[in-house]
Amino acid sequence: PVAPPFQEGASLRVQMRILGEAVAAEAEARRARAIGALSFQLYVLTQQEMRARLQAENARLYAWAEEHLLRFVDEGDLPMPAARFVRVLHALTEGLILTHLITPELITREVIVSAFETLA
Q1: Looking at the chain, which terminus has fewer C-beta neighbours within 10 angstroms, N or C?
Q2: pTM score, two decimals?
Q3: Average per-residue pLDDT in the chain?
């Protein structure tokens, strides 16, 4: 998972910018592993047992991410409940990284960062 260096006391917008920057950096770092990662996703789609394992792991990661986020952001400042918000962040992260890998000229660092800032 992407683990951004959130800043204590910073606004939700700043925290989302920090997350966007971390996702943009990770998008570049994952370029070398993209084919393996996509092959794994195809495998998960065809293997029920692996899909169940991934679902359980994602549930664990969502709980961790929610707890981590709420150390830096008040839940009342979020546009939705924290449990749902971390799922949206995960889906947005995965989608932006994949689309960046395919079309980096269109899904630039600026697009990635602004997508997260918009959530604030």
Answers
A1: N
A2: 0.91
A3: 96
